[in-house]
Each structure stands twice: as C-alpha cells, then as structure tokens.
Design a protein that fits this description.
5 helices; 25% helix; 179 residues; alpha/beta; 7-stranded mixed sheet; globular
Length: 179
C-alpha cells in the first residue's frame, strides 16, 4: 500500500457531483483542487449498510473540512451511474456536498494498494493529502468497520499545525516544544 510521505497518484475519473442528471457527472483529476488539502476516502460498495453511515457523516462535516481549506473526495469501484442512483434513492446521500469518484477500472485503488484481494472492491481507506500532493495520513479499516470522521478531522488539524502534537491533541491545545 502507498504510504505517508509518498506522492498521491495521478488519476482522471468520472465523479457524481449532483442528482440533477444534466449536471450530475464531472471529470476530476489529481490536478483539480491545486493548493488545497485533500481528504480522499474510499468505501467497498454502494447500496450497502455501513458505507452510507460514514459517507453521510463526512457530508455533515464538509463545512468543517472546507474551513480548513480541505476538499473531500469520496469514491469506490462502483460506476458514476450507480453513485447517482444511490444518491437519488438514499435519503442521507441526496445532498452530499462532495464528489463521488467512480474508479470502475480499479486503476486508482490498485495504484494506492487498497483493492481488496478477496472481494475485488476498494478497502475502507482514508488519505489526507497536503497541498503539494504528498500523503500525510493513511487510515484503513476492515470492510465491516466504519471510520470516525471526527478523528480524521482531528488528525488534519494536527497536520496543519506543522508542530509536534501529543496523543489525543485537539485543535486549540498546546503543541509540544522540544527544549
């Protein structure tokens, strides 16, 4: 799996960005959102049980990430049409404020090293990428266990201080000073 300190791979994927069929799809590349922090998170499959709980939770926290100059990008190996149908028919996903990337060829998930070898779907993986496109945080859980968007935001806050942050550090707390 690609890790901390490595450059996030180049990609060009179709994303679902709204429910309006006239403007539902957009091509997104690694060159979009230049100069911003990016939060990429992947889930195994659309129309499942755990996935919408965390996707909706990231959606509810979108403003907090945006306030930190961070663009959220979610994705799976499902197609943009499946994403669109899911957004249209799942109450909690209807008004998602971030793109849903469709890695149908599995190129990006393979390059990231998060394509599950048994299931053939994206693992439940999260990447925080800095404005220079360097991976600063990687978080992967079992397919059956959802993540904590609050913890991802806490780590983003810590990374953005560019200081030493102790265990359980929260934004606004003192960072460590080495004498």
């Amino acid at each position: 799996m690609i890790g901390v300190g490595e450059t996030f791979p180049t990609y060009s994927l179709t994303a679902t960005v709204s429910r309006d069929i006239k403007s539902a799809f957009k091509n997104i590349t690694d060159q979009d959102y230049k100069g911003k922090w990016k939060l990429y998170f992947f889930w195994p499959k659309d129309f499942t049980f755990v996935c919408p709980t965390e996707i909706a939770a990231f959606g509810k926290m979108n403003r907090e990430f945006a306030d930190r100059d961070t663009q959220i990008l979610g994705g799976s190996t499902d197609s943009e049409f499946v994403h669109h149908a899911w957004r249209t028919h799942h109450e909690d996903l209807r008004d998602l404020p971030f793109p849903m990337l469709a890695d149908v060829k599995r190129d990006l998930t393979t390059e990231l090293g998060i394509l599950d070898p048994k299931e053939g779907v994206a693992q439940r993986a999260t990447f925080i990428v800095d404005p220079e496109n360097i991976i600063r945080f990687v978080y992967v859980t079992d397919l059956s266990v959802g993540r904590s968007p609050q913890e991802v935001l806490r780590v983003l806050d810590a990374l953005q201080t560019d200081e030493l942050c102790p265990c359980n550090w929260q934004k606004g707390e003192e960072t460590l000073v080495v004498a």
